[in-house]
Design goal:
CATH class: Mainly Beta
Shape: globular
Number of domains: 1
Distance between the termini: 16 Å
CATH architecture: Beta Complex
Number of helices: 1
Number of strands: 11
Helix content: under 10%
CATH topology: Metal Binding Protein, Guanine Nucleotide Exchange Factor, Chain A
Strand content: 35-45%
Strand order of the largest sheet: 6-7-8-9-4-3-10-11
Largest sheet: 8 strands, mixed
């Protein structure tokens, strides 16, 4: 299935061609800081199945609880987070679902780092939950 999306200002455009993409939700503090939100919902896709038009800036986040570097790609113009690549899954892109045009069919497969989940967030859809490392879907 092809999915498209873009950052707030339109400088970064994304196209995903991946029939096996799954929605993972991260509640770690670093993802909260990057997204400015209670969590970061990501569509996990094979990096080879992601096309990026534009030149996102990359921040190498080395100060993580897991001690694994997370490469956080974002628009340098509007600041929209675009996708991340984690050290232990270097061939997977975790694309922020908020950038995507079509999301009505997505349901979370897993919630990770629920130990730092905001207290008011209720997980009701029955997906897997992990207190810490969520076992995000590496490809």
């Amino acid at each position: 299935m092809e999915r498209t999306g873009q950052c707030l200002c339109g400088q970064i455009k994304l196209t995903i061609n991946d029939d096996n993409a799954e929605l993972d939700v991260c509640h770690c503090k670093n993802c909260q800081l990057q997204s400015g939100s209670a969590c970061a919902p990501f569509l996990a896709v094979a990096l080879d199945n992601l096309s990026v038009d534009g030149d996102p800036k990359c921040f190498a986040d080395r100060d993580t609880v897991s001690s694994r570097t997370v490469r956080r790609h974002f628009c340098s113009d509007c600041g929209s987070p675009a996708y991340v690549v984690v050290e232990r899954a270097p061939t997977t892109a975790y694309v922020f679902s908020g950038l995507l045009e079509q999301t009505s069919d997505l349901r979370p497969k897993v919630h990770g780092w629920t130990t730092t989940k905001h207290a008011w967030v209720e997980i009701t859809e029955g997906g897997l939950q992990y207190d810490m490392d969520s076992g995000l879907s590496p490809r």
